[in-house]
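Good day; I would like, with your permission, to put a structural problem before you. What I wish to show you is a protein chain and, alongside it, a tokenised description of its three-dimensional fold. Thank you for your consideration; the sequence and its tokens are set out here:
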Amino acid sequence: MKLLLEEQLLSEPANPNDSLARRYVRTCAGGALIGNVSTRMALLDTGAQQFPVSITEGNEPDNNCYVVSPQTAYSGYAREELKRLGRPWLTWPLKLLTQGVDRLLSAAKVDKLVQVNNWLLSTNLYPTDWSVAELPAITALLRRTFPDHGIGFRSLNDFSNRELRQCLEALGYLSIPSRQVYLFDGRAGAQAPFLKHHNTRLDATLLRRSPYEVVPGTALSDADFQRMEHLYNLLYLDKYCTLNPHYSAQWMQRGQREGWIEFRALRNADGRIDGALGWFANAAVISTPIVGYDTALPQRAGLYRQLTRLCLQEAVERRQVLNFSSGAAEFKRLRGGQPQIEYSLIHIAHLSWGRRLVWTVLSRLLHGIGVPMMRKLKL
């Protein structure tokens, strides 16, 4: 078992037989292709699996993206979400709470963290054939190499990762709830329950009658990828939150070429891309870290509905589970999405007493307040 830092990988020649994880670490080395992600990357090679690893020191720029920064995930992103909550009776006390949490997280150096299997996406997927028996050795290696860093695993939910979560907790990892995601179980193929929902059938009709051509990623040009970056920014940065990852056209294009992400786009009769999505998948689960569409077009065009239908169709055809991330909760529930609380698991036993205390308080706050609120408000 070994850990190769990004500079070591860059000094080696690329090989056509390189794993997707090795290719990805090379792509993201230096951080130039994801604008607001500041991290070092490494490759963890267990002998049976290879994983990208992010390494942050806690002295990165403010508002470092939540895919590498717990500080942004649990305070910065929460502040942005509060602005959109639209419930003044809740906003004021929650704002005070997030300000207090922010100070605690900063004092505890929560961003001094090594995260395993971190693909710098909203949702990380874990190999279905990964033996949890490797976890003690992974933990020991990272504790030796980074004695002053926490060790983390993001994006675990009990539907897809119950055994992994239980094993990590047995090793002393602390469970930190992060958000509520929506899953669509397509393993039954054409008999998948979500296909029977009224809104799902309406979306199918909309896509079937759509004037748009569905274009595979292999047929997209350089200009198309530039347009897709713009469409992603319109939705995820302009409409939602600037703390979301700033994926560049070059990152998208390399992903399609290297095989760790697969794109589909909606091209209109004039040849312009008006909607796009990118799939990240393993043998059991498919996720959609990239979704974008022209938000200036009339809502009746139904671009988001069409993109959603493409995702559901893909899950059905692959007979996989679609992890459709968080956000647009009511929209996803109406189409049969099943909510699951997502967690990060953090190893802190080797850290100072004060840092352990803050992580423990955060865990209890989110289990005691955050999770019930997410479920009650159906976030």
Residues 2-180+342-377 form one domain. The chain has a mean pLDDT of 94. The CA atoms of residues 183 and 323 lie 5 Å apart. The two ends are 40 Å apart (CA to CA).
